[in-house]
């Protein structure tokens, strides 16, 4: 994948794949998941901990507790995706709950997943469609190849790049998917690029929490901890940053922090990009919204749906 930063070495990738083929790969994933979320690991599974050390995924010292290495954080993300995918019966995300994501709705189409991560959705979608995954993190793209070999399926096409400058020709896809990835991008730019690469009649499908859902979830998760000055100030800054994002960009946000905007703002940006919200197919699922917007045929008006 030209132009991308360094990947895992072949030897290291082979060691990771060998470990994942063992019967204890779920223990390793659970250990990394807890460390990724800074949760206390009361009982450290010996075999999983040894694997993690051998793979250079964790580190510790007499003065510091067990923690993930930078490599371990990225591998953790990939393993968590893989574990959830297996729990879903190896189906792509919300494939049964959202009509626009059902197999019969996607069959035979050319699909771009923007922010494909470890590529587990691609492994499912390639059974019914032609798929391409795009991500800016090359290690995730490499993990797609590892997981494809583990599952004994063809490796999907992957491209290293950014959503704000999609390396594809105009009108080259029928569907563009954002499975929770859009909040990590420059949303307006990503939507404009999505509209460019979609064919007339094509659909952009974005699954994410809107601003008010996100704030409600954070309040419930933090609970009484919100009374702590440090927690309150951090959450207040995040909320202020998301509220101000349409006018100030990421000035008030932490680097790499996700941005959640109101549904009304999202509809405005979709319309500005030349995409029309499909109110019939847009729906709420769990704590998220699945927004479906279509690129009209040439010459048709696009109006904002408030």
| Secondary-structure class | alpha/beta
CATH class call of the largest domain: Alpha Beta
Q: Into which percent range does the helicity of residues fall?
A: 40-55%
Summarize model confidence as the mean pLDDT: 87
Describe the global form: globular
Number of E strands: 10
What percentage of the residues does DSSP assign to strands (E)?
15-25%
Write down the secondary-structure element order.
HHHEEHHEHEHEEHEHHHEEE
Keywords, separated by commas or semicolons:
single chain; 306 residues; alpha/beta; Rossmann fold; 3 domains; 8-stranded mixed β-sheet; two-stranded antiparallel ribbon; 10 strands; disordered N terminus
Question: What report would you give on this structure?
Answer:
The chain is an alpha/beta fold. It folds into three domains: 10-87, no CATH class; 99-210 and 261-294, Rossmann fold (3-Layer(aba) Sandwich); 212-248. It has helices at residues 10-20, 25-36, 46-54, 70-87, 103-106, 120-125, 138-151, 187-197, 211-222, 229-248, 263-273, and strands at 58-61, 64-68, 110-114, 130-135, 157-160, 173-179, 198-208, 276-277, 283-285, 288-294. Strands 3, 4, 5, 6, 7, 8, 9 and 10 form an eight-stranded mixed beta sheet that branches. Strand 3 (110-114), helix 6 (120-125) and strand 4 form a beta-alpha-beta unit. Helix 9 runs antiparallel to helix 10.
List the topology elements.
Elements: H1 10-20, H2 25-36, H3 46-54, E1 58-61, E2 64-68, H4 70-87, H5 103-106, E3 110-114, H6 120-125, E4 130-135, H7 138-151, E5 157-160, E6 173-179, H8 187-197, E7 198-208, H9 211-222, H10 229-248, H11 263-273, E8 276-277, E9 283-285, E10 288-294
Helix pairs in contact: 2-3, 2-4, 4-7, 8-11, 9-10
């Amino acid at each position: 994948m030209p132009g991308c930063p360094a990947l895992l070495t072949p030897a290291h990738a082979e060691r990771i794949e060998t470990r994942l083929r063992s019967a204890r790969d779920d223990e390793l994933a659970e250990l990394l998941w807890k460390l990724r979320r800074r949760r206390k690991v009361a009982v450290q599974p010996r075999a999983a901990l040894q694997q993690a050390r051998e793979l250079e995924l964790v580190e510790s010292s007499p003065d510091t507790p067990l923690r993930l290495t930078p490599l371990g954080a990225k591998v953790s993300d990939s393993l968590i995706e893989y574990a959830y995918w297996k729990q879903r019966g190896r189906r792509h995300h919300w494939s049964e709950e959202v009509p626009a994501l059902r197999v019969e709705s996607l069959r035979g189409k050319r699909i771009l997943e923007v922010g494909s991560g470890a590529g587990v959705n691609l492994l499912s979608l390639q059974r019914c469609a032609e798929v391409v995954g795009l991500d800016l993190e090359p290690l995730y793209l490499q993990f797609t190849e590892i997981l494809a070999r583990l599952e004994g399926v063809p490796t999907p096409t992957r491209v290293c790049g950014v959503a704000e400058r999609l390396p594809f020709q105009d009108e080259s896809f029928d569907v563009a998917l954002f499975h929770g990835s859009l909040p990590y991008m420059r949303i307006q730019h990503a939507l404009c690029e999505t509209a460019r690469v979609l064919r007339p009649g094509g659909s952009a499908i974005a699954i994410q929490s809107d601003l008010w859902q996100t704030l409600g979830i954070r309040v419930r998760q933090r609970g009484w901890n919100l009374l702590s000055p440090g927690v309150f100030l951090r959450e207040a800054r995040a909320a202020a940053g998301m509220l101000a994002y349409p006018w100030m960009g990421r000035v008030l946000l932490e680097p790499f922090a996700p941005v959640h905007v109101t549904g009304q703002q999202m509809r405005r940006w979709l319309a500005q990009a030349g995409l029309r919200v499909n109110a019939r197919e847009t729906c709420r699922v769990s704590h998220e919204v699945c927004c479906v917007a279509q690129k009209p045929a040439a010459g048709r008006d696009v109006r904002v749906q408030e």
